[in-house]
Design brief:
The protein has five helices and eight strands. The protein is α/β, with parallel strands linked by helices and 188 residues long. A hairpin with a 5-residue loop joins β7 and β8. It comes from Nocardioides deserti.
């Protein structure tokens, strides 16, 4: 069985929207604005790429990444080489620049998790992340929490009324620039 990992840059108040400068969000690029770069804080990103077996994305994130990530061969060599899956009921087909298999339901994701292989990793994809967590399909969170409050914006966690989910924090580290790494397993 594969592990499903949701990874995110997150503000202290839970916002994950447009960390890298994506258009359309008031605070777009908030991970770079006023926060000093500390290479050590981003080591988790390299570990994720080295350990992942496949990417799992929501439609909007896939459509945003597909024209950009294939050109980033130095930054994302493994991600560009590994299988990609997009969960969508509306996507008519994959983007030939960055081919992916389209999954139509969370049942398809659950079936994919039952296969052998390295972890499935979810980048961005707020709506998908909510659905996966609410369905009990997330096994681990990799979070880089930034010392900033953004107020409005897409949040990492849904506001669904559900039972409490306990997490076991398996790794934390804080960095000189105020970023805090939190790696937590969903307790079963």
């Amino acid at each position: 069985m594969r592990t499903l990992i949701v990874t995110a840059f997150m503000s202290l108040d839970g916002v994950m929207e447009a960390p890298g400068g994506e258009p359309g969000y008031r605070n777009s690029g908030w991970t770079f604005d006023g926060i000093a770069f500390d290479e050590a804080a981003y080591a988790l990103k390299a570990q994720e790429q080295d350990g992942a077996g496949a990417l799992l994305l929501g439609r909007r994130s896939y459509e945003a990444f597909a024209p950009v990530w294939p050109t980033m061969t130095a930054e994302f060599p493994r991600y560009n080489a590994m299988p990609r899956y997009v969960v969508s009921t509306t996507l008519e087909g994959d983007d030939p620049r960055w081919p992916a298999t389209v999954l139509r339901s969370l049942d398809d994701v659950a079936a994919l998790k039952q296969t052998d292989g390295a972890p499935l990793i979810v980048h961005g994809s707020a709506t998908l992340g909510h659905a996966l967590a609410d369905a009990g399909l997330v096994d681990r969170y990799h979070l880089l929490v930034f010392p900033v409050l953004l107020g409005a914006g897409k949040r990492l966690f849904s506001d669904a009324d559900r039972d409490k989910t306990l997490l076991d924090v398996v790794d934390t580290e804080s960095y000189a620039n105020g970023i805090v790494k939190v790696v937590a397993d969903v307790r079963r």
